[in-house]
Amino acid sequence: MMPTTAAVDKAPAKAPKSVLQDSQQIERAAALIRMGARMQVLESETDLSYERLLRLYKEVSGKSPSKGQLPFSTDWFLSWQENIHSSLFLNIYEYLSKSMDMDSIDILTKAYRLYSEQIVAAEVDPLLSFTRAWRLVKFVDANMLNMTQCSGCGGKFVTELYENPRQYVCGLCSPPARAGKCKGERTLMLH
User: Distance (Å, rounded) from C-alpha 126 to C-alpha 65?
Assistant: First the structure.
């Protein structure tokens, strides 16, 4: 049976793409690229096609994007220095999430900028890339990681879900034996 012309006419029409929305998507993608976001992050957080993102990436950064998969392990966020950096970032992110009504990617970029400012002020090398910060938020949203309060200092740190909050002691209160002993100029040093 052939559809009638009335049925064909009632098919939903595709909404025209807004030039303003397209411009906002390009600006968001360019800002993410400048912060070091990988292509997978750009594809996930914008509505732009892969081809447009690729051209934009090359134009903004002056090079082709990195190839390969994103890291998919929670272990990186749990080792000593990486945990301190991840916890600093996630505390900032959670504070902004509770106090600002914005898209999560906009909160993430603001939190990452604030994290970067703190790292510069502390004169240590940043260990958390923007892509890892994005992945950390995804892990927390998926209930693969969470924040646990240290029973020693009261700070909140990135931990696995099954961490016992009554007995949890952070890496600052109880650092590993070799922590802070490396000779790097801009690493965390314990006195």
Answer: 21
Q: What angle do CA 170, 131, 80 make, to 5 degrees?
A: 20
CATH of domain 75-160: 1.10.10
Question: Domain map of the chain by residue range?
Answer: 18-68, 75-160
Residues 91-139: tens digit of each pLDDT: 999 999 999 999 999 999 999 999 999 999 999 999 999 999 999 999 9
Task: Determine the pLDDT at residue 15.
Answer: 54
In this structure, the strands spanning 156-160 and 145-149 are antiparallel
Q: Binding residue per annotation — 170? A: yes
Q: Decide: 128 and 82 in contact? Cβ < 8 Å.
A: yes
Residue 182 assigned to a binding site: no
* Whole-number Å distance between alpha carbons of 112 and 159: 19
Task: Say whether pLDDT at 5 is over 70.
Answer: no
**H helices within 16-103, ranges in order?**
19-34, 39-45, 50-61, 80-99
pTM over 0.85: no
The three-state DSSP-derived secondary structure of 8-21 is HHCCCCCCCCCHHH
C-alpha dihedral sign at 50, 56, 60, 64: positive
